Amino acid sequence: MNLSPGQTLGHYRILEKAGAGGMGVVYRAEDTRLRRQVALKVLPAAVTASADRLGRFEAEARAVAALSHPNVVTIHAVEEVGGVHFLAMEWVEGRTLDRHAREAAQTGTGLPLDLFRRIALPLVSAVAAAHARGVIHRDIKPGNIMIAGDGTVKVLDFGLAKQLTAPDAEAAPTSAPTAPAVTGPQTAAGAVLGTVGYMSPEQAAGRPAGAPSDVFSLGVVLYELLTGRRAFQEESDISTLAAILHKDPPPPRESRADLPADLDALVQACLEKDPARRPASAVELEARLKAALPATEGGGGGLRRAGLLTVAAVVLLAVAGAGGLIWFLRAGAEGRRVRLEILPRVQQLMEERDHMAAFLLAREAQEALPDDPLVRKLLQDCTTSATLTSDPPGARVQVQAYAAPEAEWLDLGPTPIQGI
User: Fold this and answer.
1) Which of 31, 98, 139, 354 is catalytic?
2) Longest dimension (CA), the chain
3) Average pLDDT, stretch 147-161?
4) In the annotation, is 139 catalytic?
5) 194 FRET partner, CA 20 to 30 A, in 148, 295, 372, 411?
6) pLDDT of 202 above 80
């Protein structure tokens, strides 16, 4: 079932289609009763005909609703209207982690350690909270991790989540869960669930997946953020699965000498082929990750950066005067805005095939950072060169996005126009 903007589903009014996956289509909608935006995950009619898939969908609701964690998306309701089954979830405004990963890939250096810490620790903490309650995710990947506008990390889409036996209510929060028989929907023997490139060896082989499987997927994500490249990416899905089963990626420190040895070793431990050699769960991984990250980063990072900025200010004032310092600070802030906000938005618009909007935004970035190589590359990716002539010459040329007749016309000047 496809829903269009303006349609209603119960007391929800559809605003736009936000995405789609194997377990449903996600829409941004308005809850007309509570006057808030929500995400509706609608199960396709073809899937509701399958008792197993419908059971897995309902298991997602139970698994996630049982969690209360600031870094796990909130389930508001499980509903069915006119035979349409859907979840009403917290709407998170932001961008998925895969855009951060692509940015790291473009620079070829991975994320700075302070930014890595601000993403990695909440991510692992969210999965640890799930593991502590006997829930595994089974599809951890950058596309299922959202970075909200305020920087909050949110783990999305427990569509392949599996509930193990109920956790011991008296157990300490830091105790690692065991992996007894599955009590939620059963997965057919030999079925491969997950996302190629991020699934564990046991998932790739169609074997049962427990908490160490999530640890492997977390390790793949952490590896990508640290190095700027995927741990397992071959020419085809089949060869990628074979690499997951039989190949080890180069240690992260081979491409980043600034990584602490303990952090490098921990990521490699997460990527062990044998589940028994990995951290037993995300609970253990969280404790080891905190110990492996430099103490000067994260919570104390703001003070550390502020101290460095003060030293820089004194030097610049001595050399260039107050006017030069003000220019420097403004340029730095604008550069950060372009890198962290504008360029990821340009990439998103290109993926959505909104080429005119991508071009206009990329041109704005170029005005702010005219010599930035990433800006130049994005402009090349979203444009093509053309020569425009007319007979007689002197015709005024303007362009407008074909799909947006209400948009302003962009003036290109009179013909002939060479190599615009």
Assistant:
1) 139
2) 85
3) 78
4) yes
5) 148
6) yes
